Amino acid sequence: MTLHSRNDPELWGAAVGGDEQAFGELFDRHGRTVYNFCFRRTADWAVAEDLASVVFLETWRRRKQVRLEGGSLLPWLYGVATNVLRNHQRSLRRYGAALSRLPEPVAPETDADLVAARLDDQRRMREILDRIAHLPRRDQELLVLCVWEELTYAEAATALGIPVGTVRSRLSRIRARLKEPPPLPGHKGINNALREELS
């Protein structure tokens, strides 16, 4: 059996047993998804990259507690990412005044079009986050997981540590509070998925 043919439980078992290549394959498999998830909560590509790294480091630190839902490590990673983002947001509030005096870092890209596209993505993502900012934080987190990341109710329940019934009832409440959703950068078909979920 080749490394790439192994599923998440097999790779995770090998990684916990000391197989660094197996952990690297799990990172390759899920790293981009976690990175995009962090971007959609921060609207900052550089911060999202840092936070995605923290998610995998924290997952490894807590490796004895990891439980795979439906044969995938991804719900667990979303749960860790949600906690990492909460900590990040608390830090931003605590040091907000100091951070506001610093200029935003610009990625050292040589392609001007790529830099412009990344900055445009960040601007549009901030507009989206502003639009859902009136929702309670736990509802924002659930919206991101079920609609933007397309997790099942069971996977979202695992990620957030809540019952499946709570996921259903909260989504029903979110549907009632949100109207036409704004477009999301970098995710094909997200508008249709969001409209269907909230209709």
Automatic annotation (TrEMBL):
Residues 126-178 form the RNA polymerase sigma factor 70 region 4 type domain. Residues 26-94 form the RNA polymerase sigma-70 region domain. Pfam families: Sigma70_r2 (PF04542), Sigma70_r4_2 (PF08281). Keywords: Sigma factor, Transcription, Transcription regulation. InterPro entries: RNA_pol_sigma-70-like (IPR039425), RNA_pol_sigma-70_dom (IPR014284), RNA_pol_sigma70_r2 (IPR007627), RNA_pol_sigma70_r4_t2 (IPR013249), RNA_pol_sigma_r2 (IPR013325), RNA_pol_sigma_r3/r4-like (IPR013324), WH-like_DNA-bd_sf (IPR036388). Coiled coil: none annotated. Residues 180-199 are annotated as: Disordered. Belongs to the sigma-70 factor family. ECF subfamily. PANTHER family: RNA POLYMERASE ECF-TYPE SIGMA FACTO, RNA POLYMERASE SIGMA FACTOR RFAY-RELATED. This is Sigma-70 family RNA polymerase sigma factor. It comes from Actinocorallia libanotica.
